[in-house]
Write a structure and sequence with these properties.
Number of strands of chain A: 8
Order of helices and strands of chain B: HHEEEEEEEE
Strand order of the largest sheet of chain A: 1-2-8-7
Helix content of chain B: 10-25%
Number of strands of chain B: 8
Oligomer: heterodimer
Largest sheet of chain B: 4 strands, antiparallel
Radius of gyration of chain A: 19 Å
Number of helices of chain B: 2
Strand content of chain B: 35-45%
Shape of chain A: globular
Order of helices and strands of chain A: HEEEEEEEE
Number of helices of chain A: 1
Radius of gyration of chain B: 20 Å
Largest interface: A-B, 68 and 61 residues
Chain lengths: 147, 140
């Protein structure tokens, strides 16, 4: 029913595998001191932030939410995301585990100073909210030619 | 595959890339897969399991019954800009994995699963003959 990655055709698998490595390399071995606004591990939703000279990408791992109800705002270089995930409880059933987050959440992410709050895009896919914020042109490294 | 071995020798820490099983077989140090949070409840007809697996699409999800063990596995994928560097990361593993031991009254051939917005729902029915029966108390 569900394809196991190792059974995929060679070329497709190679591609996926490379992508996988990028993710692992990028976030897997990363360690640094905690940000002042960061939350303990296990908080909902989990957040990853990546950047390039052109833009900053914020990923919120928020499965099972209605993306339309998310409140995303940016002020200067502070990005706030709030929303809720209500999990209905089946009263007639016996619960053995209830580990999934239910309720309201809010996360504030501090971004580099040079982000442009006018150029922000957000999308929701497979339970991840991706927010892409472009950086100001002037802050990008420029190639200077010797004449 | 030639390309794979070449890349893996250059980046040994990314061994989690393939399936967890094949990495273990190679005996390399692998970052522990993340354990997805679950809700599990039972009603008259069976057991329902919900697991949070954000970033896993249907084709990256593996759900199987191995003997009496239910194995959930999924690989995280999200769109990265070329040349991205990490600034902050709560999620440091790109693989989810969790296993559960099933019991005999569950009908493992009839497991039903669906995946929506990163939430996996698994429904495991009980064998009909083993569903609880109401026992009437007779009064005289």
């Amino acid at each position: 029913m569900f394809g196991i990655p190792s059974s995929m055709p060679g070329s497709v698998f190679d591609e996926l595998w490379r992508l996988q490595q990028d993710v692992d390399e990028l976030f897997g071995n990363w360690s640094s001191s905690g940000g002042i606004r960061s939350l303990p591990r296990g908080s909902f939703p989990a957040v990853n932030v990546g950047h390039t000279p052109e833009r900053v990408d914020v990923y919120l791992f928020a499965p099972g939410i209605d993306a339309k109800t998310l409140d995303i705002s940016i002020q200067q270089n502070l990005l706030s995301v709030s929303g809720k995930r209500e999990i209905s409880v089946n009263e007639a059933a016996t619960y053995y585990r209830q580990e999934r987050f239910s309720g309201e959440f809010r996360r504030v992410v501090s971004l580099p100073e040079d982000v442009d709050p006018e150029r922000v895009q957000a999308q929701y896919r497979d339970g991840i909210v991706q927010i892409r914020i472009e950086r100001r042109e002037s802050a990008r490294p420029r190639q200077i030619k010797i004449s | 595959m030639a390309t794979n071995s070449e890349v893996s020798s250059r980046r040994p820490t990314a061994a989690a890339a393939g399936s967890a099983a094949s990495s273990e077989q190679r005996g390399q140090a692998v970052e522990a897969p993340a354990r997805p949070p679950v809700d599990i409840f039972e009603d008259r007809d069976g057991i329902t399991l919900l697991a949070d697996m954000p970033g896993v699409s249907k084709d990256r999800l593996s759900l199987r019954v191995d003997g009496n063990t239910l194995v959930l596995e999924g690989q995280v994928q999200f769109e990265l800009s070329e040349g991205t560097e990490a600034l902050y990361a709560d999620v440091r593993s790109s693989l989810y994995r969790r296993t559960f031991t099933l019991s005999g009254e569950l009908e493992t051939e009839k497991i039903d699963a669906s995946l929506k917005d990163g939430v996996l729902t698994v429904r495991i029915p009980k064998r009909a003959e083993l569903r609880p029966r109401k026992i009437e108390v007779q009064t005289r």
